[in-house]
From TrEMBL:
Residues 46-65 bind DNA. InterPro entries: BetI_C, DNA-bd_HTH_TetR-type_CS, HTH-type_TetR-like_transc_reg, HTH_TetR. The keyword Cell division does not apply. Residues 23-83 form the HTH tetR-type domain. PANTHER family: HTH-TYPE TRANSCRIPTIONAL REGULATOR ACRR, HTH-TYPE TRANSCRIPTIONAL REGULATOR RUTR. This is TetR/AcrR family transcriptional regulator. The lineage of its organism: Bacteria, Pseudomonadati, Pseudomonadota, Alphaproteobacteria, Rhodobacterales. The keyword Repeat does not apply. It holds the Pfam family TetR_C_6. It comes from the Bacteria. Keywords: DNA-binding, Transcription, Transcription regulation. It comes from Paracoccus marinaquae.
Length: 215
């Protein structure tokens, strides 16, 4: 990938600021939206606030994202890509289904800790009701995560590690609910505990409840 050709560098010439490529500017805008969503809540994020935070005009912002919906969709796709990469990495960490299951949960908590606005984005009524594409993107990611959990749970049941009298999909719902509950408690509270450590502690408790007899 070729680096963008800058017109000038403020730090070297002291005459004009660096001109960022469109790709870099879009990434900066998305990151700013996530920061603002974490600070003031996603429903209060405006294009004016984003432009002001970056130091550009709203007209400049709209050159990269023609509508507010398009901006939020870019944010959703960025978050979804990060989640997918984290899950892929988790599934490559070990051979046993419980190892992979725990790694998936750990990866999810790590992504939430890295993107604190994520729980609020998922449950923002304004965003999810008015932006169908955003809702579809987030719903698709949650469905994928549920499916990955269910697959590993089913494998663990077949291996006799987890009890087999509970449908794998139901057990996956319990684990996704655990993630959501801990994440919301962390996001809406003082964030005074280690999200990943607390989430994995409760995951281990849940696994003991789901363990097959004698395991």
């Amino acid at each position: 990938m070729r680096l963008p050709k800058y017109v000038c560098d403020y730090s070297l010439t002291n005459r004009c600021p660096v001109r960022k490529s469109a790709e870099l500017r879009k990434a900066e805008i998305v990151a700013t939206v996530l920061d603002l969503a974490d600070g003031i809540g996603p429903d209060r994020v405006t294009t004016g606030a984003v432009a002001s935070q970056i130091g550009v005009t709203q007209a400049a912002l709209f050159r990269h994202f023609p509508t507010k919906d398009a901006l939020w969709q870019a944010v959703a796709e960025h978050v979804a890509e990060g989640l997918a990469l984290a899950w892929d990495g988790a599934l490559n960490l070990g051979d046993g289904p419980l190892v992979r299951l725990r790694a998936l949960i750990a990866a999810q908590f790590a992504q939430i800790a890295a993107t604190p606005a994520l729980p609020m984005l998922l449950f923002s009524r304004e965003l999810n009701v008015t932006n169908a594409e955003l809702r579809a993107t987030f719903h698709g990611r949650l469905t994928t995560f549920h499916g990955l959990l269910a697959t590993e749970i089913r494998t663990a049941q077949e291996a006799g590690v987890l009890r087999g009298d509970m449908p794998a999909n139901d057990a996956a719902v319990l684990l996704t609910s655990l993630v959501q509950g801990v994440a919301i408690r962390w996001a809406l509270g003082a964030r005074d505990f280690d999200l990943r450590a607390e989430g994995l502690r409760l995951f281990d408790v849940q696994c003991r409840l789901l363990a097959a007899e004698g395991k």
